[in-house]
Specification:
Elements: H1 7-15, E1 21-22, E2 30-31, H2 36-42, E3 45-47, H3 55-68, E4 75-77, H4 85-95, E5 103-105, H5 113-123, E6 130-132, H6 140-150, E7 161-163, H7 171-180, E8 190-192, H8 200-212, H9 214-217, E9 221-223, H10 231-241, E10 246-248
Parallel strand pairs: 3-4, 4-5, 5-6, 6-7, 7-8, 8-9, 9-10
Antiparallel strand pairs: 1-2
Helix pairs in contact: 3-4, 4-5, 5-6, 6-7, 7-8, 8-10
């Protein structure tokens, strides 16, 4: 493992840093600069969404975390970039060395099954409360890797939000997640699986966990619309949620987060 910041990591920091500059619209106001290295080293939140990250940028960020092991880092936001499997695997190798984290928000990237598997392995004991992998191109293999870590009661003890929507998860992956939630993730509050490829088999497995597992413990919201289930699958979820979990099964999604009339269950 590297013990110092090499030229590639330095170039990464330079790429995503900028100097302070006068405002174009308010001449007397100076816009503050951004030191990417200092931010990673000292801040609780590392926010780099919509910054044009490539997969190689993700690799260098992961290498930087491995070298620096920032003690204050709790949240990473890299939404709407182009980080793929190599970047996700490198980031996973970095955060696995940390003592704890709160939030990993990697929606709208290009992370496939291999990257998701690495992230699941790296984050299982970090105390995360929020994982968002929305709109990444992983499927059943990635979902099964997540499920393998979720199933153990000692993992993800603080996890409250798990967003795996608009990926490529189908019945096999959903069934694995359902089985995992029978035994693990007892603090889960919101589960997002909408916009996937989940049919009746996945619905039945998830309904079982909603009756007996994590869903029966703390789950309040299930986002499940826009999946290809039939009336049989819909009723399995509907009956499992009735009286305890807000769930939307149709389309369009609910307009209000908390208004009961916007939800099917």
């Amino acid at each position: 493992m590297a013990t110092e910041i090499d030229d590639d990591i330095k170039a990464f920091f330079t790429k995503f840093s900028f100097e302070s500059a006068p405002s174009e619209h308010f001449p007397l106001m100076e816009l503050p600069g951004y030191d990417c290295q200092e931010k990673l080293a000292t801040a609780e939140i590392f926010y780099q969404s919509e910054k044009g990250y490539t997969d190689m940028d993700g690799v260098q960020l992961g290498r930087a975390i491995q070298v620096m092991r920032p003690a204050t880092l709790r949240q990473i936001y890299l939404t709407k970039n182009a980080v793929g499997d190599a970047g996700a695997i490198s980031i996973a190798a970095g955060i696995k060395l940390l003592e704890r984290m709160d939030t990993l928000h990697l929606s709208d990237n290009q992370i496939g099954d291999a990257g998701v598997a690495a992230l699941a392995d790296a984050t299982q004991s970090l105390g995360l409360t929020t994982i968002v992998l929305t709109r990444n191109p992983f499927g059943n293999a990635g979902a099964k890797a997540i499920a393998a870590t979720l199933a153990k009661p000692e993992n993800y003890e603080r996890l409250e939000w798990l967003f795996l929507n608009e990926t490529r998860i189908a019945d096999e992956g959903a069934a694995a997640l359902g089985r995992a939630l029978l035994t693990g993730c007892r603090q889960l509050n919101r589960l997002a699986l909408h916009g996937n490829q989940i049919g009746d088999e996945g619905c039945r497995a998830l309904a079982d966990s909603l009756n007996k597992g994590a869903g029966a413990q703390a789950l309040e919201f299930l986002y499940f619309q826009n999946n290809p289930f039939t009336e049989e699958g819909k009723m399995a979820i509907f009956n499992a949620c009735r009286g305890k979990i807000r769930c939307h099964l149709g389309w369009p999604p609910p307009l209000g987060m908390l208004n009961p009339e916007d939800w099917d269950v």
